[in-house]
């Protein structure tokens, strides 16, 4: 935003630079007359030269030449009359200049703040609106890269770094997102929300695992704010990854105590508690929430999970004939995309070539944006793509495989990577 306002001010100043000197410059009527007379005289001289050339070439005879020459002399006498013009000095127009210098910036600013789209300067908001405005991933990537170049010169711009971190995350570029959040945590070391976002991006960049650095960031966030819901949820996921389901239940119950009753959050957490209890070998009826156990568990069971019918699962394999073209560490993106809808993926899972063949499950929890999930579309195509660059944007030469349109909820989907992206 700051860079845009500076650029706009410079453009206004440039426009005024060309307008104001003309209004302030002193000018006289004699100057206008002299300029006009000089122009007329030059035209008549050219006509005389042409007449002389015609005579020498024999185009006209002597009589015709004399007649034409007299006409030219008469026109010179009529059109060029030095000494007859009235000299009337005219000063510049300072009040007009001052008025324009004030009025132009004020009107421009008023029109921008009334009609302009300030959200258009925020790439993360552009990403969120891309499905409605049909903005391509390439265009969004370009805007984010432009922002990244600007931020190299403004390392303390918290708003700009936040935009960039969220935009990279929305594009599936989690390594870059994590790097941006790492910078933000240095600017805002006491911000629990920022640390939770950092942990989330780190986990996504680390094949969706919370172990290691992501969990360290979660612990720091909870030390600052023990009731931070996102940090508690990520902590529960980390416990589940270690098969510490009792610890996961404890974290989910802390969220349940903070969630409004009968809210979507409470129902989702109730479902997670039941699942963790089942994995721990503890009956869900013993209390999903740690408060009014049976009642809250019944509510959780009565409400179907949001993604229950919006999962797509199956397997991915690489055509053996193409194995020599890739390396073990090349990134594999497994994704679902709407048949009729936005071009960006509705859900994404990241693997490596060394993991193939592999099984997968895509659901609403893997959505890039909350307003574009698997459950929002009647038909999707599921695919897998191998990227040597690790970029979420498809590149020429990437190996890929994609299914025919299918409905969310499909199981045993088989994807074979056997072609090149063009």
Features:
single chain, 422 residues, alpha+beta, Serine Threonine Protein Phosphatase 5, Tetratricopeptide repeat, 3 domains, 5-stranded antiparallel β-sheet, 3-stranded mixed β-sheet, 53% helix
Written account of the structure:
The chain is of the alpha+beta class. It has 15 helices and 10 strands. It has helices at 2-24, 29-56, 62-79, 94-115, 123-128, 130-133, 137-151, 158-170, 174-187, 192-205, 213-224, 229-241, 245-258, 264-280, 293-302; strands spanning 27-28, 89-90, 312-318, 331-338, 347-352, 358-362, 380-387, 399-402, 413-417, 419-420. The strands form 3 sheets. It has a 5-stranded antiparallel sheet, with no helix packed on it. β4 (331-338) and β5 (347-352) form a beta hairpin. The two termini are 37 Å apart.
Number-wise, the strands total: 10
Spatial ordering of strands, largest sheet: 5-4-7-8-10
Run of helices and strands: HEHHEHHHHHHHHHHHHEEEEEEEE
What is the end-to-end distance? 37 Å
Number of helices: 15
Global shape: elongated
Low-confidence stretches: 27-34, 83-92, 129-133, 285-309
Please indicate the count of domains: 3
List strands and helices in order, with pairings.
Elements lengths: L1 H23 L2 E2 H28 L5 H18 L9 E2 L3 H22 L7 H6 L1 H4 L3 H15 L6 H13 L3 H14 L4 H14 L7 H12 L4 H13 L3 H14 L5 H17 L12 H10 L9 E7 L12 E8 L8 E6 L5 E5 L17 E8 L11 E4 L10 E5 L1 E2 L2
Parallel strand pairs: 3-9
Antiparallel strand pairs: 1-2, 3-6, 4-5, 4-7, 7-8, 8-10
Helix pairs in contact: 1-4, 2-3, 7-8, 8-9, 9-10, 10-11, 11-12, 12-13, 13-14, 14-15
């Amino acid at each position: 935003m700051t860079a845009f306002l500076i650029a706009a001010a410079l453009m206004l100043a440039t426009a005024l630079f060309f307008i104001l000197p003309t209004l302030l410059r002193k000018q006289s009527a004699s100057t206008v007359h002299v300029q006009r007379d000089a122009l007329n005289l030059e035209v008549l001289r050219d006509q005389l030269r042409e007449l002389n050339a015609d005579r020498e070439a024999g185009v006209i005879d002597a009589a015709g030449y004399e007649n034409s020459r007299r006409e030219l002399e008469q026109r010179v006498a009529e059109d060029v009359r030095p000494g007859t013009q009235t000299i009337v000095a005219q000063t510049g127009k300072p009040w007009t200049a001052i008025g324009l210098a004030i009025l132009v910036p004020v009107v421009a600013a008023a029109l921008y703040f009334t009609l302009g789209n300030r959200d258009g300067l925020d790439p993360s908001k552009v990403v969120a609106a891309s499905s409605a405005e049909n903005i391509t991933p390439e265009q969004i990537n370009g805007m984010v890269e432009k922002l990244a170049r600007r931020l190299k010169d403004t390392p303390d711009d918290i708003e700009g770094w936040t935009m960039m971190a969220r935009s990279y995350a929305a594009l599936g570029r989690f390594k870059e997102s994590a790097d941006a959040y790492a910078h933000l945590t240095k600017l805002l070391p006491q911000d629990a929300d920022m640390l939770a976002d950092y942990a989330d991006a780190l986990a996504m960049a680390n094949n969706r695992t919370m172990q290691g650095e992501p969990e360290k960031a979660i612990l720091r966030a909870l030390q600052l704010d023990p009731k931070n819901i996102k940090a508690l949820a990520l902590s529960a996921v980390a416990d589940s990854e270690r098969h510490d389901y009792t610890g996961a239940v404890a974290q989910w119950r802390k969220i349940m105590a903070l969630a409004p009753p009968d809210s979507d959050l409470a129902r989702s957490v109730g479902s997670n508690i039941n699942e963790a209890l089942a994995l721990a070998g503890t009956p869900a009826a013993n209390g999903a929430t740690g408060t009014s156990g049976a009642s809250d568990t019944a509510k959780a069971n009565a409400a179907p999970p949001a993604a229950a019918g919006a999962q797509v699962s199956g397997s991915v394999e690489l055509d053996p004939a193409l194995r020599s073209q890739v390396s073990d560490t090349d990134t594999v993106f497994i994704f679902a995309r709407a048949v009729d809808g936005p071009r960006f993926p509705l859900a994404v899972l990241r693997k490596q070539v060394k993991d193939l063949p592999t099984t997968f499950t895509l659901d609403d929890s893997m959505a890039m944006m909350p307003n574009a999930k698997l459950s929002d579309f009647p038909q999707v195509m599921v695919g897998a793509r191998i990227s040597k660059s690790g970029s979420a944007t498809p590149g020429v030469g990437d190996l890929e495989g994609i299914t025919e349109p299918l409905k969310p909820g499909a199981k045993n989907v088989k994807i074979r990577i056997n072609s090149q992206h063009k």
